[in-house]
Amino acid sequence: MTEFYDRYSAALFGVIQRIVKDDSEAEDVLQEALVKIWNSIESYDTSKGRLFTWVVNISRNLAIDKIRSRQHRVSASVQSLDDSLTAQRQASPDSFRPEHIGLQEITKQLVPEQRQVIDLLYFGGFTQSEAAEELNLPLGTVKTRARTALKMLAKLVR
Amino acid sequence: MEDYQEYIESGRLEQYVLGELSPAAQAEVEDWAARFPQVREELEALEAGLGVYAEAHALAPPPAMRERVLSAVFAQIGPPAAPATPVAEAPTMRVSASNPHVAAAPVAAPAAGRSSGWAIAASVALLLSLVGNALLYSRWQQASESLVALENDQARVASTTQVLNRELTDTRQQLHVLRSPDEYKLVALAGTPTHPQAHARVLYSKSEHRVYLDVQQLPPLPAGKQYQLWALDKGKPIDAGMLTAATASGDGLQQMKDIASAQTFAMTIEPTGGSVNPTLNTMTVVGNI
């Protein structure tokens, strides 16, 4: 568990923090997620995907449950999402970190509209139809943007 | 809807990887993935993409949180007992290390019989050995913790190096292009009457067929549009590739598609992803070799 924490906590905490937007709540969710991962590790099915995907999904779902339960979503408008992302990036330590380079590279690859869609879907916990409504776009456009963006990201690691 | 292409387009797969689907709908997606390798591939690509996105947003939790979270987690899942973790192996080691002494004590006592001296000596030895083991154990634990920390550091340095190396290779390549005036011919692309401010350059190597693009200034794009570079060979337009958002904003050189022969380069505004033929009335810059 200690090893697991050292290896995955940054990735999980990053996702959780960006969903709940609060350090101490993120800590609670991270803790919950680790317990859940530990207790359900037998149900992890290697044929269904990578371990990383599985653990990130567990953490993300718990974080989304959290914001749904406190009905945080109404206020989580597009603007505040963008603001909080920029704020966090500036607030983070200025020591040299490769994950930040990664973020910059990704920002360069994605056009702002794609990022906005992915952020809403991934960190806002919106469904595609909710995101379409929020952004005043046809559902088809949201679907296309999400797919193009995700495939572009996948290409980056190949 | 038995057509897998249609299924890929339906947006179901995105919902699946984002965890929006009901268990029944999830099973349906998995069933499609099992039947069509194309669906499976698409699904894996989407998952990998999200993984990159998640990793790119990694945020190291405050150091103080590590102890708090771990102890809270251990309180819920029970003490570290799994044989797989190094922390858990420790108690076993201590028992086995002190085994000889444990065994020695009962043997020594009856043999001595008349005197308890041997027994006392053995107990003292056992006690000392336990204290020694406890000390060693805690040192060993510290060592293994710092090992994990070091391994993490090392992994981070390694990935930093990788990223830097990639950037260095790119930069070297750009420098090479800029420093080879014989090999790379500079083609200035001037703005068309509708966009007089627009200005870009193409660096074209006829012998190697390579094309690099350097943007000085381009008008901002409307939503859903992208700049596309075209090479004109004997009046016929050839797609030379799409400009990334970074290139369009003048961030650096971008290598475009290889072009065997051209007399003119031009740029148009096309729907994201590009067009087969240029939309001529959106032509922004143009220049002859």
Automatic annotation (TrEMBL), chain A:
<dbReference type="InterPro" id="IPR007630">
    <property type="entry name" value="RNA_pol_sigma70_r4"/>
</dbReference>
<feature type="domain" description="RNA polymerase sigma-70 region 2">
    <location>
        <begin position="4"/>
        <end position="72"/>
    </location>
</feature>
<dbReference type="InterPro" id="IPR013324">
    <property type="entry name" value="RNA_pol_sigma_r3/r4-like"/>
</dbReference>
<dbReference type="GO" id="GO:0006352">
    <property type="term" value="P:DNA-templated transcription initiation"/>
</dbReference>
<keyword id="KW-0804">Transcription</keyword>
<dbReference type="InterPro" id="IPR007627">
    <property type="entry name" value="RNA_pol_sigma70_r2"/>
</dbReference>
<dbReference type="Pfam" id="PF04542">
    <property type="entry name" value="Sigma70_r2"/>
</dbReference>
<dbReference type="GO" id="GO:0016987">
    <property type="term" value="F:sigma factor activity"/>
</dbReference>
<dbReference type="InterPro" id="IPR036388">
    <property type="entry name" value="WH-like_DNA-bd_sf"/>
</dbReference>
<keyword id="KW-0238">DNA-binding</keyword>
<dbReference type="GO" id="GO:0003677">
    <property type="term" value="F:DNA binding"/>
</dbReference>
<feature type="domain" description="RNA polymerase sigma-70 region 4">
    <location>
        <begin position="109"/>
        <end position="153"/>
    </location>
</feature>
<protein>
    <submittedName>
        <fullName>Sigma-70 family RNA polymerase sigma factor</fullName>
    </submittedName>
</protein>
<keyword id="KW-0805">Transcription regulation</keyword>
<dbReference type="InterPro" id="IPR013325">
    <property type="entry name" value="RNA_pol_sigma_r2"/>
</dbReference>
<dbReference type="InterPro" id="IPR039425">
    <property type="entry name" value="RNA_pol_sigma-70-like"/>
</dbReference>
<keyword id="KW-0731">Sigma factor</keyword>
<dbReference type="InterPro" id="IPR014284">
    <property type="entry name" value="RNA_pol_sigma-70_dom"/>
</dbReference>
<dbReference type="Pfam" id="PF04545">
    <property type="entry name" value="Sigma70_r4"/>
</dbReference>
<comment type="similarity">
    <text>Belongs to the sigma-70 factor family. ECF subfamily.</text>
</comment>
UniProtKB/TrEMBL annotation, chain B:
<dbReference type="GO" id="GO:0005886">
    <property type="term" value="C:plasma membrane"/>
</dbReference>
<dbReference type="InterPro" id="IPR018764">
    <property type="entry name" value="RskA_C"/>
</dbReference>
<dbReference type="GO" id="GO:0006417">
    <property type="term" value="P:regulation of translation"/>
</dbReference>
<dbReference type="InterPro" id="IPR051474">
    <property type="entry name" value="Anti-sigma-K/W_factor"/>
</dbReference>
<keyword id="KW-0472">Membrane</keyword>
<dbReference type="GO" id="GO:0016989">
    <property type="term" value="F:sigma factor antagonist activity"/>
</dbReference>
<keyword id="KW-0812">Transmembrane</keyword>
<protein>
    <recommendedName>
        <fullName>Regulator of SigK</fullName>
    </recommendedName>
</protein>
<feature type="domain" description="Anti-sigma K factor RskA C-terminal">
    <location>
        <begin position="120"/>
        <end position="282"/>
    </location>
</feature>
<dbReference type="InterPro" id="IPR041916">
    <property type="entry name" value="Anti_sigma_zinc_sf"/>
</dbReference>
<keyword id="KW-1003">Cell membrane</keyword>
<dbReference type="Pfam" id="PF10099">
    <property type="entry name" value="RskA_C"/>
</dbReference>
<keyword id="KW-1133">Transmembrane helix</keyword>
